[in-house]
Protein backbone atom coordinates (compact mmCIF):
# COMPACT_ATOMS: atom_id res chain seq x y z
CA UNK A 1 0.00 0.00 0.00
CA UNK A 2 2.98 2.35 0.00
CA UNK A 3 2.50 5.10 -2.55
CA UNK A 4 -1.20 5.42 -1.90
CA UNK A 5 -2.37 8.81 -0.63
CA UNK A 6 -6.00 9.25 0.37
CA UNK A 7 -6.94 12.93 0.69
CA UNK A 8 -9.86 13.44 3.08
CA UNK A 9 -11.23 16.99 3.13
CA UNK A 10 -14.41 18.55 4.50
CA UNK A 11 -15.82 20.95 7.07
CA UNK A 12 -15.63 20.45 10.83
CA UNK A 13 -17.79 17.68 12.23
CA UNK A 14 -18.15 15.91 8.88
CA UNK A 15 -16.52 12.81 10.40
CA UNK A 16 -13.09 13.20 8.79
CA UNK A 17 -11.02 12.05 11.78
CA UNK A 18 -12.96 8.91 12.66
CA UNK A 19 -13.34 7.94 9.02
CA UNK A 20 -9.69 8.64 8.16
CA UNK A 21 -8.41 6.65 11.10
CA UNK A 22 -10.75 3.75 10.37
CA UNK A 23 -9.71 3.65 6.71
CA UNK A 24 -6.00 3.87 7.63
CA UNK A 25 -6.39 1.00 10.09
CA UNK A 26 -8.28 -1.15 7.59
CA UNK A 27 -5.63 -0.65 4.89
CA UNK A 28 -2.54 -0.63 7.13
CA UNK A 29 -1.74 2.98 6.22
CA UNK A 30 -0.37 5.90 8.24
CA UNK A 31 -2.66 8.79 9.19
CA UNK A 32 -2.00 12.54 9.31
CA UNK A 33 -4.31 15.05 10.99
CA UNK A 34 -3.31 18.39 9.44
CA UNK A 35 -5.90 20.26 11.54
CA UNK A 36 -3.90 19.23 14.63
CA UNK A 37 -0.87 20.98 13.12
CA UNK A 38 -2.80 24.27 12.66
CA UNK A 39 -4.14 23.86 16.19
CA UNK A 40 -0.63 23.24 17.57
CA UNK A 41 0.66 26.37 15.85
CA UNK A 42 -2.28 28.30 17.35
CA UNK A 43 -1.62 26.87 20.83
CA UNK A 44 1.99 28.08 20.60
CA UNK A 45 0.96 31.56 19.36
CA UNK A 46 -1.51 31.91 22.27
CA UNK A 47 1.14 30.81 24.77
CA UNK A 48 3.60 33.34 23.35
CA UNK A 49 0.98 36.10 23.54
CA UNK A 50 1.17 36.84 19.80
CA UNK A 51 -1.60 39.22 18.66
CA UNK A 52 -3.71 36.91 16.47
CA UNK A 53 -5.65 39.83 14.99
CA UNK A 54 -2.40 40.96 13.35
CA UNK A 55 -1.49 38.64 10.43
CA UNK A 56 1.97 40.24 10.12
CA UNK A 57 2.74 39.38 13.76
CA UNK A 58 1.60 35.77 13.20
CA UNK A 59 3.63 35.53 9.99
CA UNK A 60 6.75 36.90 11.71
CA UNK A 61 6.72 34.21 14.43
CA UNK A 62 5.36 31.13 12.62
CA UNK A 63 8.81 29.77 11.75
CA UNK A 64 9.80 29.42 15.42
CA UNK A 65 7.90 26.45 16.91
CA UNK A 66 9.11 22.94 16.15
CA UNK A 67 6.04 20.83 15.30
CA UNK A 68 6.21 17.04 15.29
CA UNK A 69 3.13 15.08 14.22
CA UNK A 70 2.98 11.29 14.68
CA UNK A 71 1.11 9.19 12.11
CA UNK A 72 -0.15 6.11 13.96
CA UNK A 73 -3.93 5.88 13.34
CA UNK A 74 -4.34 4.19 16.75
CA UNK A 75 -2.73 7.09 18.60
CA UNK A 76 -1.75 10.12 16.55
CA UNK A 77 0.57 12.40 18.54
CA UNK A 78 1.40 16.07 18.29
CA UNK A 79 4.27 17.87 19.99
CA UNK A 80 5.38 21.50 19.95
CA UNK A 81 8.97 22.13 21.06
CA UNK A 82 8.91 18.72 22.73
CA UNK A 83 5.65 19.37 24.65
CA UNK A 84 2.73 16.96 24.16
CA UNK A 85 -0.18 19.24 23.17
CA UNK A 86 -2.73 16.61 22.11
CA UNK A 87 -5.08 17.67 24.93
CA UNK A 88 -4.64 21.46 24.96
CA UNK A 89 -5.16 21.85 21.21
CA UNK A 90 -8.78 20.66 21.61
CA UNK A 91 -9.60 23.38 24.19
CA UNK A 92 -12.06 26.15 23.34
CA UNK A 93 -9.42 28.91 23.25
CA UNK A 94 -7.52 27.14 20.46
CA UNK A 95 -10.68 26.15 18.57
CA UNK A 96 -11.87 29.76 18.66
CA UNK A 97 -8.58 31.15 17.34
CA UNK A 98 -7.34 28.53 14.87
CA UNK A 99 -9.12 29.81 11.75
CA UNK A 100 -7.45 33.22 12.07
CA UNK A 101 -4.01 31.62 12.32
CA UNK A 102 -4.74 29.18 9.47
CA UNK A 103 -5.70 32.10 7.20
CA UNK A 104 -2.16 33.53 7.28
CA UNK A 105 -0.32 32.50 4.06
CA UNK A 106 3.08 32.18 5.78
CA UNK A 107 1.61 29.74 8.30
CA UNK A 108 0.12 27.69 5.50
CA UNK A 109 3.34 27.66 3.48
CA UNK A 110 5.28 26.36 6.48
CA UNK A 111 2.75 23.72 7.47
CA UNK A 112 2.08 22.53 3.92
CA UNK A 113 5.85 21.98 3.48
CA UNK A 114 5.95 19.94 6.73
CA UNK A 115 2.88 17.96 5.63
CA UNK A 116 4.50 17.09 2.30
CA UNK A 117 7.62 15.90 4.11
CA UNK A 118 5.54 13.63 6.33
CA UNK A 119 3.51 12.32 3.39
CA UNK A 120 6.79 11.47 1.67
CA UNK A 121 6.37 8.46 -0.57
CA UNK A 122 2.77 7.95 0.55
CA UNK A 123 1.02 5.06 2.24
CA UNK A 124 -1.11 7.50 4.22
CA UNK A 125 -4.58 8.94 4.80
CA UNK A 126 -4.38 12.72 5.18
CA UNK A 127 -7.25 14.76 6.55
CA UNK A 128 -7.76 18.51 6.34
CA UNK A 129 -9.32 21.28 4.30
CA UNK A 130 -6.90 21.66 1.36
CA UNK A 131 -5.32 18.22 0.97
CA UNK A 132 -6.81 17.35 -2.43
CA UNK A 133 -6.54 20.93 -3.72
CA UNK A 134 -3.13 22.11 -2.45
CA UNK A 135 -1.11 19.70 -0.30
CA UNK A 136 -1.45 16.66 -2.53
CA UNK A 137 -3.35 17.50 -5.75
CA UNK A 138 -2.07 14.28 -7.37
CA UNK A 139 -3.53 12.03 -4.65
CA UNK A 140 -5.12 9.05 -6.43
CA UNK A 141 -8.10 9.08 -4.06
CA UNK A 142 -9.75 12.34 -2.98
CA UNK A 143 -12.82 12.33 -0.77
CA UNK A 144 -14.89 15.35 0.29
CA UNK A 145 -16.98 14.47 3.35
CA UNK A 146 -20.08 16.51 4.13
CA UNK A 147 -23.02 16.23 6.52
CA UNK A 148 -25.92 18.51 7.38
CA UNK A 149 -25.06 21.40 9.70
CA UNK A 150 -27.32 19.91 12.35
CA UNK A 151 -25.72 16.45 12.17
CA UNK A 152 -22.25 17.95 12.38
CA UNK A 153 -23.16 20.05 15.42
CA UNK A 154 -24.81 17.05 17.10
CA UNK A 155 -21.67 14.95 16.68
CA UNK A 156 -19.42 17.69 18.06
CA UNK A 157 -21.60 18.46 21.07
CA UNK A 158 -21.71 14.74 21.92
CA UNK A 159 -17.89 14.86 22.11
CA UNK A 160 -17.75 17.97 24.30
CA UNK A 161 -19.33 18.31 27.71
CA UNK A 162 -21.42 21.37 28.51
CA UNK A 163 -21.99 22.40 24.92
CA UNK A 164 -25.47 22.55 23.39
CA UNK A 165 -26.19 21.57 19.79
CA UNK A 166 -27.27 25.18 19.03
CA UNK A 167 -24.05 26.65 20.47
CA UNK A 168 -22.01 24.15 18.48
CA UNK A 169 -23.91 24.86 15.28
CA UNK A 170 -23.28 28.61 15.62
CA UNK A 171 -19.57 28.14 16.45
CA UNK A 172 -19.05 25.70 13.57
CA UNK A 173 -20.85 27.96 11.11
CA UNK A 174 -18.46 30.78 12.07
CA UNK A 175 -15.39 28.58 11.65
CA UNK A 176 -16.59 27.09 8.35
CA UNK A 177 -17.35 30.58 6.99
CA UNK A 178 -13.82 31.73 7.86
CA UNK A 179 -12.24 28.57 6.43
CA UNK A 180 -14.27 28.72 3.18
CA UNK A 181 -13.88 32.43 2.44
CA UNK A 182 -10.21 33.02 3.29
CA UNK A 183 -7.94 33.97 0.38
CA UNK A 184 -5.22 31.39 1.09
CA UNK A 185 -6.20 27.81 0.25
CA UNK A 186 -9.87 27.96 1.26
CA UNK A 187 -11.93 24.88 2.06
CA UNK A 188 -13.35 23.67 -1.23
CA UNK A 189 -14.07 20.47 -3.05
CA UNK A 190 -10.92 19.63 -5.03
CA UNK A 191 -10.94 18.73 -8.72
CA UNK A 192 -11.52 15.02 -9.00
CA UNK A 193 -12.85 14.65 -5.44
CA UNK A 194 -15.80 12.42 -4.67
CA UNK A 195 -18.39 13.91 -2.34
CA UNK A 196 -19.76 11.65 0.37
CA UNK A 197 -22.67 12.90 2.48
CA UNK A 198 -22.44 11.18 5.86
CA UNK A 199 -25.62 12.63 7.42
CA UNK A 200 -27.60 9.40 7.39
CA UNK A 201 -24.71 6.93 7.53
CA UNK A 202 -23.03 5.19 10.46
CA UNK A 203 -19.26 5.42 10.85
CA UNK A 204 -18.88 1.82 9.64
CA UNK A 205 -20.98 2.57 6.57
CA UNK A 206 -18.87 5.60 5.66
CA UNK A 207 -15.64 3.65 6.12
CA UNK A 208 -17.08 0.89 3.92
CA UNK A 209 -17.98 3.44 1.20
CA UNK A 210 -14.48 4.91 1.26
CA UNK A 211 -12.86 1.46 1.09
CA UNK A 212 -14.93 0.56 -1.96
CA UNK A 213 -14.01 3.88 -3.64
CA UNK A 214 -10.35 3.15 -2.92
CA UNK A 215 -10.69 -0.33 -4.42
CA UNK A 216 -12.26 1.14 -7.60
CA UNK A 217 -9.82 4.02 -7.99
CA UNK A 218 -6.55 2.17 -7.60
O1 LIG B 1 -9.81 19.67 11.45
P1 LIG B 1 -9.83 20.66 12.59
O2 LIG B 1 -11.21 21.12 12.93
O3 LIG B 1 -9.05 20.22 13.78
O4 LIG B 1 -9.06 21.92 11.99
C1 LIG B 1 -8.90 23.08 12.76
C2 LIG B 1 -8.74 24.29 11.83
O5 LIG B 1 -7.48 24.22 11.15
C3 LIG B 1 -9.78 24.45 10.73
O6 LIG B 1 -10.95 25.10 11.19
C4 LIG B 1 -9.03 25.28 9.71
O7 LIG B 1 -9.06 26.65 10.05
C5 LIG B 1 -7.59 24.81 9.87
N1 LIG B 1 -7.17 23.83 8.86
C6 LIG B 1 -6.77 24.30 7.64
N2 LIG B 1 -6.27 23.45 6.70
C7 LIG B 1 -6.18 22.14 6.96
C8 LIG B 1 -6.62 21.62 8.20
C9 LIG B 1 -7.14 22.49 9.13
O8 LIG B 1 -6.85 25.50 7.39
N3 LIG B 1 -5.65 21.34 6.03
Description:
The structure is a single chain. The protein has 218 residues and is an alpha/beta fold. Helices cover 50% and strands 15% of the residues. The protein is built from nine helices and eight strands. It has helices at residues 16-27, 34-48, 55-61, 92-102, 105-119, 131-135, 149-159, 165-181, 203-217, and strands spanning 5-9, 30-33, 67-69, 78-80, 83-84, 124-128, 141-146, 194-197. It has a five-stranded parallel sheet, with helices on both faces. A three-stranded antiparallel sheet has the order 3-4-5, with helices on one face. Helix 4 runs parallel beside helix 8 (165-181). The chain is globular. The N and C termini lie close together (10 Å). The mean pLDDT is 94. Residues 12, 34-35, 38-39, 98-99, 102, 128-130, 175, 179 line the site of cytidine-5'-monophosphate. GO terms for molecular function: ATP binding; CMP kinase activity; dCMP kinase activity.
Structural class: alpha/beta
Gyration radius, rounded? 16 Å
Strand content of the residues, in percent? 5-15%
Largest sheet: 5 strands, parallel
Amino acid sequence: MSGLVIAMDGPSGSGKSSVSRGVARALGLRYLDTGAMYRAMTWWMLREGVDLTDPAAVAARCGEPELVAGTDPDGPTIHVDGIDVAGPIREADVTGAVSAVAAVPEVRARLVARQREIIGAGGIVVEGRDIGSVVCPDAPVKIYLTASAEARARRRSAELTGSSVDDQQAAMARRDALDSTRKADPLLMADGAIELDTTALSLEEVIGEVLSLVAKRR
